[in-house]
Predict the 3D structure of the following.
Amino acid sequence: MLSLITFLPAFGALLIGLIPRERKTGIRSMAIAISLLTLALSFGLFMTFDSVHLGMQFEEQAQWIPQIGITYHVGVDGISLFLIMLTTFLVPLLLFAPWDAIRDRIKLFSMMLLILETAVIGVFISLDLVLFYIFWEAMLIPMYFIIGIWGGERGSYAAIKFFLYTMSTSVLMLVAIIVLYFVGGNTFDLMQLKKVGLDSTLQLWLFGAFAAAFAVKVPLWPFHSWLPDAYSEAPTSGTILLSAIMSKAGLYGLIRFGLTLFPSALLQFGPYLLALALIGVIYGALVAWAQKDLKRLVAYSSISHLGLVAMGIFAFTLATVTHASGIGASSTTVNNPSVLSLTGSVMQMINHGIIIAALFLILAILWDRFGKRGLNDFGGLAEKMPRFMTLFLFVMLASVALPGTNGFVGEFLILLGTFMSKYQVYAIIAATIAVLSAVYMLWMTQRSFHGPVSDAVERSGVKDLSGREAWLLIPLVILILWMGIFPNLWLSRIRPSVEDLLSQAQAHVQLTTHQAEKNP
Amino acid sequence: MNFVWLVLALPLVGALLNGLCGRYFSKRVVGLIGCSSVGLAFAISIWTLLELVGGSDRSVIQTLFNWIAVGNFSVDVRLLVDPLSTLMILVVTGVGFLIHVFSVGYMNHDPNYHRYFSWLNLFTFSMLVLVLASNFLLLFVGWELVGLCSYLLIGFWFTRPSAAAAASKAFIVNRIGDFGFILGIFLIFAIFGTLDYSTVFSLLGIQTYSTTIMTTITLLLFVGAIGKSAQIPLYVWLPDAMEGPTPVSALIHAATMVTAGVYMIARTHALYQLAPFTLEIVAIIGALTAILAASIALVNNDIKRVLAYSTVSQLGYMFLATGVGSYTAGMFHLTSHAFMKALLFLGSGSVMHAMADETDMRKMGGLRSKIPWTWAVFLVGVLAMSGIPPLVGFFSKDLILEKVIFSGNTLLWGVGLFTAMLTAFYLLRAYFMTFHGKPRYDEKKIHPHESPPVMLWPLRILALLSIAGGALWVAVFGFSFTPLDNFLAPVFKDVVHVNAEQPEPLFSESTLILFSVLVALVGIGIAYLVYVRGFRLSEGVRKIFHPVYLILSRKYFVDELYNWVIVKPLQLLSRFLASIFDLTILDGLINGIGRLIGWTGGVFRSLQAGYIRSYAAWVLLGTLGILIYLLLR
C-alpha cells in the first residue's frame, strides 16, 4: 500500500512521458487523475491507520543491496501520516491551478511535479538511511528545474543558489550516514541503529551534520538566505511545494532522525538550537514587516513560523515523574512537556503547510489579475473583490493564530509545552509572535486590501474570484477551520507516536549515559 | 437550562446566514435574521435567569465537546451558567438586541448591510463565548474573537485610510494585552495542571500557593484586561475605534468587548483575592485611568470621542471597585454603564443621523427643538451618567465611591469624587454644545430631522432602563433593596473583606451621598455657566491655563510618545535587518563563501565547469564510489 502510494506519481510521470506533448488536455487530465488517485489511496491509509497502535504501521521491508545492508524499509506513524496526506492533498490542487506561465511546457511540468511527489512521500516513509538519502536528493532535481525553467527573471540564479546550498549540506549528511553505518554495526536501518548507544561526542558531530542538512532545507535562521530568492523567483507551484511541503522534510528529518538517533546531542545542543530558532521567529517577523514585495513578505513570515515549529522540536526534555499539583496527580503519570510541544510542532507543520499554500495561492490570484505583487500596488481590493477578501481573511487569521483556526492549536501547544519545560524564557519571548505576526499581516492587509480603491485597481476592471479560483481556496479554508475547531481528529493520531518517539529517545539517552559511565 | 447552548448558537447561525447568503436576501430579511437571532438569545437568557432563580442549583455546567486533548492537557468547550455569567448574557443579548434594532435604521443606506449584520452577530457570539466559558482557554477564545470582531467592525468602512488604520491599531494593541493574558494561562496550567475554573478555584482552597505566583498570574491576566478594557497604558485604541459605525461603538462600549476585563477579574476573583498587591495595582490603574480619560474628555470637540473617553474613564471606576475587592459593585456599574453608554452612543448616532454624519460639536447647537426625542433621551443619559439621583448612574457610582472609602483608600476615593465632577462637566458640556444655543451649522445645507421609530424605540427603552435601573441596587439612607447583590452573592460568597478591621470612615454614608450629588451639581453648574451663559474667564487666567489646555487637547501626547518610543525604533530595526543585515551581511557572507570555494576550486579547474549537472555528477560519482568501496571491502 505504502509503496503504491509512493511510486504511483512517478509511474504516472512515466505514463505522461508517453503522451505526445501537443495533447495538453490529455496530459493535464492524466496528471490530475494520477494525483487524485494518490490522494484517494492516502486517504485509505488514513482510514485504516490505527491510532492506538504504537510504532510503525504499514511497514514494508525487503533486502535491497544485502552486501552492504541496504534495505528497502518503509513505514508510517502518526507523525508522517499527515505529512503524506498534506503532500497528496496539495499536489492535485497545484495541478488544478489554472495559471502559471507553465502553459507552454505542461508536459515536463506535470512530470516534474509528480516525480517530486514521489520523492517527498519517499522522504516521509523511509526507515533506511540510504533510502532516505536517495529520496532526499531526488527532491532537489525536479525542484531545481521547476525554479530554473518556470521561475522569474532571476530564476536560474535562485535555482543554482538553492541547489548548491542544499547540496553542500546534504553531502555532510551523507558522510554522517556512512559513519553511522560503521559504528552502528553495518546497517542503515533506522530501527536497528536506534538501538545503538552512540558515544556522546560522536553524537554531537553526527547530529551536527544531519542538522545542517535539515536546517538548510527548512530553512532555519541563519541558513535561510536562499529562501527569499527561491520563494520569490519560483513559479507559484514551486513556491508552494518549497514552503508547504519541502520545508517539512527538514523538520521531519529533525524529528525522525534527530530525536531517534541523537537525543543526547539534542539535549546538549538544546539551548543553542532554541536560541537560533527563537531568533528566527523574531527576525523573520521583523524582516517580513519591512518587505515591499508581498511574496517576499510571506516568505519571511514563513521563516518566523517555521522557527516556532523548530522550537517545539528543540524544546525536547526528558520526562520526569512529577507530582504536579493537578487533580489526580497521585497517579505517577510520566509528565513530559515535550509531548505538548512536539505534538504541537507536528500539528503546526500540517497547519503551516495549509496556511502558507493558501497565502501563496492568494498572491498568485492577484498576480494573475494584475501582474503585480508589490505592497503598494493594490489598495481597496476588499471593496472590489469581497469574496476574495472573505477567503483571505480566514487565511490571514490562521496565520496570526487566532483561536478557532488551526494556527492557534499548533502554536499554543508548542508554546505551552516549551513554557512547561525548563526553557520557559524562550517560550515567553516567542509568545511575542502573536503581536509581531499581527503587525505584519495587518500591515499587509491595510496597505494592499484596505484603503481607497487605487487607480491601478480601478483601471484593470478587476473581477472577483472565479468559481474555479474560489474552489482552490475553499478546501484550504475548510481545513483551517476544521483543524482549529476539532483538532482532536489529528491530535489523537499524532500524540501516541510522539509519546512513543519521546520514550524511546529517553531510553536512548539513558543508554548513552550508561555507556559513558561504564567506559570513562 | 438545557438550551443555554442556543444562546451561543443563535447569533452564530445569524452570522453565518447573513455572512454566506446575505447578498441574496433583501434588507428586510437580513435585518430580521440579525435582530431575531440576538432577540431569541435574549429570550433564552431570561428563561435561564428564571430557571436559575427558581432552581436550587446556582451553578450549572454544560459540556458541548472536547476541544483539544494532548496527554495531560485537555480542554472542553463547556459552558458555565451561574449568576455572574447569567447577568452578563442578559446584558450582552439585551443591550445587544437594542443595538441591532437601532442598526436596522441607522445602516439602512449602507451597501454592505448583510456583512454589517453578520459581523455584529459574530461580535455578540464572541462575547457570549467569553462570558459563558468555563475554563481559561475558552475565555481566551472569546477574548481573541471580540478583538477580531472589533477589528472587522472598526474597519467596516475600510476604504477610509483612517478606519483601516484604527482597525489595525485596535487589533495590535489588543494583541499586546493578550500576550500577557496567554502567559498567564500558561502559568496557571503550569501551577494547577488544569485550566478549568472550578478545578483551579477548588485547588485554591485545598493547597497553599505562594503569593508571588498568585501575584504573577493575576498581573499577567490583568495585562490582558488592560488591553481589552482600554486602561492605562493600552487605552489608546478605544478613542480611535470611533472610525466604525456608531452602533458598533455602542456595542463595543456597552454590551461587548471592553467590559470583558472587568468580568474576567470578577470571574477569577478567587485568584485576585490571594494577590493583594495586584488588587492594589488594579485599583490604582483604575483610578488613574478614570481621571486621565475624564480630563481628556473635557476639551474634546468630537461628540463620539467625548463618549469614548467617558467609557475609558467609567471602566476605570469599575476596576477601582474590583481593586478594592468589591466585585459586585463593579458588576453593578458594568450593568448600569451598559444601559447609559448604549443610550448615549445610540443617541449620538441619532444626532449624527440628523446632522448628515457630523460629529464635531462646534458645528451643532440648538438641536433641542429639531430632534426632541433624541434630545430627551440624551438628556436622561447625560444626567444618569453624571450621577444625578434617582437615575441608575447615581446608585452605581455612589456605591463604588462608598466601597472605596470604606476600604480605607481615602486618596483613591478623592480621585473618584473629583473625576465624578469632571464627568458631570464634560457630559453636560457635550449636551449643551449639541442641543442648546444657536445653530452653528449651515442651515441651508443641513436640515436636522428626527430619527425613524426603529431607531427611537431602542433609545426610549434604554432611557427607561437608565431611569429605573437603580432599582437593581438601592442602598441609601439606611434603606436597602439589593436584588442584584443577592443574586450575585453565591458567586462571591468566598470573598472575605481583605481589611476586616477597617478604620473608621471619614464620613458617614449619608454624607458621602451628599458629596456625590454635590460634585455632580457643581460640574453641571460650571458647564451651564460656560456653555449656556457664555461665562468666560479673564484673559490672564486663560493664558495661565493655556498649556494645560494644549496638553489635554493633544491627549497628553501619548500617541506621539508611543510612536516615537516603540513604533519607530521597531520599524527602524525591521528595515535595518531587512535591507542591510539580511541582504548585505548574511547573504553576502554566504555568496562570499561560495566565491571563496570557487576561487580555491580554480586549482581544480578541470572539475569545475560551472554547470549544475557537473556538480551533481560529481556528487553522484562520489556517492557511487563510496558505495562500491563498501561493496568490495
Notes: Residues 603-610 of chain B have pLDDT under 50 and may be disordered.
